[in-house]
Write a structure and sequence with these properties.
The complex is a heterodimer of chains A (413) and B (303). Chain A is flat, with a radius of gyration of 31 Å. In chain A, a hairpin with a 5-residue loop joins strand 1 and strand 2. A two-stranded antiparallel sheet of chain A has the order 1-2. In chain A, helix 4 runs antiparallel to helix 5, helix 9 packs parallel to helix 13 and helix 11 packs across helix 13. Chain A is mainly α and 413 residues long. Chain A is built from 18 helices and 2 strands. Chain A has 3 domains: 41 residues; 126 residues, no CATH class; 221 residues, Orthogonal Bundle (MetI-like fold). Chain B is mainly α and 303 residues long. The chains are: A mainly alpha (413), B mainly alpha (303). At the A-B interface, helix 1, helix 9, helix 10, helix 11 and helix 13 of A face helix 1, helix 5, helix 6, helix 7 and helix 8 of B.
């Protein structure tokens, strides 16, 4: 009885509609595809490769085919016997030929300090060592008997390892392969993660405290004035990060403008000028300044459309101005506070440039340690593991931001 | 928020305190940027105002640090300032070479980011776009992921693919970092874009290229240009990726500044900073004018 609706050329309407929609979908997707591929190749793939490096380090395992066999045959904790030392000497000879003893030793050195020099010096003598190898090797360097070293070599003999993540969390392995925490004086990473979180929270709080009043002022002034005052927020936003960091160095130095002003006004004597730079104070002040616009802009865009008549109604019903602010105005700004705070927190957790330049020793964040392992200590796998942990944290926060606020609501000026 | 007539004395006092607090916060925001401008004209190698500068004595001021920007790295800085001296500046002065590198890298990174970003923003703002949210999150992520992680990843990736120490590597990385800004600004202009305009143009017989050129492009152009400026500034200010993946002789302005700050900070840095502040004032003005033009075009503001 019911006749299906058709288009002019006789196709059922439902089908034609579905086809048209699929075409529109494809067309939209084709527009995005080039960029998506570009980002996948230049951004996602490099980070994926970095993540791989945090669990994969073949520099030792490649160099020790004989030792690997021995490790496979004997369970952890076995006393190294003559066969083990023979395998070691064979591998050291091969390393000497391939000139890979430095690289392999470095890998073990991450878990057992001093291993690198043992590898290079014993590899040099390896050709002249005679059986019994155990005595010969121990003659060359009696540290080779240390069971912790053998555990470290066992760990490194497999290219895939979680040891770098353990190291990034101040954990290590004892001679039986159990996970233990490292000595207090070597435990730096957990403390640094803690400091990064603490400083980020502090900076987020200061930007909120400083950002709220001016966002409120900008939102309640007539547009003519607020557009003018907005320059004070946008100019820092557009100014080079290095320029802003430089100017804080100049301002806060012990011979800088702020100290000069305080000496001139008599607040401090010339002898005890305040040390405000190259320490945590410097990091906090400079990062608050740099990240303040990221709080003000979302707050402003939430506050601008708030209707003033709600507060007026509360006042006319007898609320004091404080109550009206607390009960009526503040709850309406929560989305802006959330957006600003979350964005500033995400950005400051991974901050690198400013702490590196003004942080001194006490103002360094986790990013600076990643850079240190990349450029100075050259423990790239550990750097990758630290970066992976940081990335994980940031991505969780980013996911939260997307859930709560939505990335398409990000505003720039 | 003007003070109402019926405000109590306490409220009046609080209101003026509030204004003072706001003024101080604005001062905190802007003073560090403006203070380096007079300091860059210091005749002495100090980072504070000398007695002569405070008494506005002309001998307390000099342009010697700007001159140093030209002469530093030259082969014959003391020669007579004729055309060969200027040629020497152009070819050898360290800051001039850094500026050339920065502009070249910034220019190509901007072109790449703007072209790809605008295209993607057009697709993303269509209601039919599948997986819109997830894709948007991926495309914005270069802005969110800490720069040190991006740089570390690129360092490994480029040493594997042979892009390390090359201009192309830096350009690709900077384009990636600039793309989120292009996407954000262009999608913002496309919010409230009236799709009946494109349908009207199609019904009048225009093909999709003509529609794009004559209808869509003029409307989104302000957003595209702001996005491009953002992308350029991002590249022009980027130092960490350059430190990690560029060759030693590929100096850029931020890298040169970074080295200057880390080693021995000299007032020449302040003169560079002043020039950069002036550039950012110009860029900010351009972007604000574009934003107003775009709002006027779309009828969002009275003008």
């Amino acid at each position: 009885m019911s006749e299906t609706l058709t288009t002019v050329d006789g196709k059922p309407l439902k089908q034609a509609l579905a086809a048209a929609q699929a075409r529109a979908k494809r067309r939209a997707f084709w527009l995005v595809l080039p960029l998506l591929l570009f980002i996948l190749v230049t951004f996602v793939a490099p980070i994926g490769q970095m993540l791989l490096r945090s669990v994969y380090n073949p520099s030792f395992s490649q160099a020790v085919p004989n030792l690997s066999v021995w490790f496979d045959e004997n369970p952890p904790g076995t006393e190294p016997d003559e066969a083990a030392y023979e395998a070691l000497v064979m591998d050291l000879r091969q390393m000497r030929e391939d000139k890979s003893q430095g690289e392999a030793g470095t890998r073990v050195n991450y878990d057992y300090s001093g291993a690198r020099s043992m590898f290079t010096s014993t590899a040099r003598k390896a050709e002249r060592l005679e059986p019994p190898y155990k005595e010969a090797v121990l003659d060359a360097d009696d540290d080779w008997a240390d069971p912790v070293l053998w555990q470290a070599m066992r760990g490194a003999s497999s290219a895939y390892t979680m040891n770098f993540y353990l190291a990034a969390l101040d954990l290590g392995r004892d001679e039986n392969g159990n996970i233990v925490s490292v000595d207090d004086n070597r435990a730096v990473y957990v403390k640094l993660f803690g400091r990064t979180l603490f400083l980020s929270a502090l900076i987020t709080a200061t930007t909120l405290i400083l950002g709220f009043p001016i966002a409120h002022l900008l939102a309640t002034l007539p547009l003519r004035y607020s557009n003018l005052l907005m320059i004070f927020v946008l100019l820092p936003f557009w100014t080079s990060l290095l320029v802003r960091t430089t100017s804080w160095i100049v301002l806060l130095q012990s011979q800088g403008v702020v100290n000069d002003l305080m000496v001139a006004s008599g607040a401090v004597s010339d002898g005890n000028r305040l040390q405000m730079i190259y320490n945590q104070t410097g990091t906090i002040i400079a990062m608050t300044h740099i990240l303040l616009p990221f709080t003000v802009l979302p707050l402003y865009s939430v506050m601008r459309p708030i209707n003033p008549s709600y507060v007026r109604a509360a006042r006319s019903l007898g609320a004091t101005s404080w109550t009206a602010f607390r009960r009526i105005y503040l709850p309406q700004t929560i989305p802006g506070i959330g957006a600003g705070a979350l964005l500033v927190f995400i950005l400051s957790v991974g901050y690198y440039i400013t702490p590196a330049l003004v942080g001194g020793a006490s103002g360094q964040l986790i990013s600076n340690l990643i850079a240190f392992h990349m450029q100075k200590s050259l423990n790239w796998s550990l750097a990758a593991a630290l970066a992976a942990l940081l990335l994980g944290g940031v991505l969780v926060l980013y996911w939260l931001y997307d859930r709560l606020i939505g990335v398409d609501n990000l505003k720039l000026g | 928020m003007a003070l109402p007539k019926h405000a109590s004395t306490l409220e009046r006092i609080w209101y003026y305190i509030y204004l003072v607090i706001c003024a101080l916060i604005f001062l905190f925001l802007i003073a560090p940027i403006l203070i380096i401008i007079p300091l860059s004209f210091n005749a002495e190698p100090y980072f504070t105002f000398t007695q002569k500068m405070l008494s506005l004595d002309p001998t307390g001021y000099s342009a010697r640090w700007y001159d140093l920007l030209l002469t530093f790295g030259m082969t014959a800085p003391d020669a007579a300032r004729d055309s060969s001296w200027w040629a020497d500046v152009w070819n050898n002065a360290a800051w001039v070479r850094a500026a050339k590198n920065s502009v070249i890298i910034g220019f190509f990174a901007t072109i790449l980011a703007t072209a790809l970003g605008t295209l993607a923003a057009l697709g993303l703002s269509r209601p039919e776009m599948p997986y819109r949210r997830a894709i948007m999150a991926i495309l914005i992520s270069p802005m969110i992921v800490p720069i040190i992680i991006t740089a570390t990843g690129l360092f490994f990736f480029y040493s594997l693919t042979g892009l390390a120490n090359s201009y192309i590597g830096v350009i690709l990385a900077h384009a990636t970092l600039g793309i989120p800004f292009v996407i954000i600004t262009v999608t913002a202009t496309l919010v409230g874009f009236d799709h009946s305009l494109t349908r009207a143009s199609a019904s009048l017989g225009a093909n999709s290229t003509t529609t794009f050129r004559k209808i869509i492009m003029p409307l989104i152009l302000p957003g595209v240009v702001s996005g491009a400026l953002f992308a350029f500034v991002t590249s022009f200010d980027e130092v960490v990726v350059v430190l990690f993946v560029a060759a030693h002789d590929q100096q850029t302005i931020p890298r040169q500044m970074w080295n200057g700050i880390r080693e021995q900070i000299s007032p020449a840095i302040l003169s560079v900073a002043t020039i950069l502040v002036i550039i950012s004032i110009l860029l900010l003005t351009t972007v604000e004018l574009l934003r107003r033009r775009s709002e006027r075009l779309r009828g969002l503001s009275p003008g």
